[in-house]
Amino acid sequence: MLSLMIALAGQAALAPSMPVSSRAEGPVNPITPLNPNANALFDRDVALKQWAVRIYDANRDGWLTLYEAQGALAGFKDLADGDRDGRVTTYEYDRAKEFIAAR
Predict the structure, then answer these.
(1) Quick check: 43 pLDDT over 50?
(2) How many CA atoms lie within 13 A of 7 on its CB side?
(3) How far apart are CA 71 and CA 65, in angstroms?
(4) Domain range holding 46?
(5) pTM over the 0.70 mark
């Protein structure tokens, strides 16, 4: 759980205003640095990986590239951060997983 918080915080610190298209192969602004740990969250959680691949796998190969994972991480953070404070608490993380599982 702590590593999730670190990955999400790192994503926010590296690219706080990086617009990412969910169907694009990469970030909209190629000058913005990528979060190299974006795949870590999805590699540890099977349910989140299935969700991310279903929505963000632009080339439909069944895997998330580093570029695809940027959008997936941003999408999950947007979904999970209920109070929009830039952080995902364990409570928000659990609620987001329940929401994804119910879909």
Answers:
(1) yes
(2) 21
(3) 10
(4) 2-16+28-102
(5) no
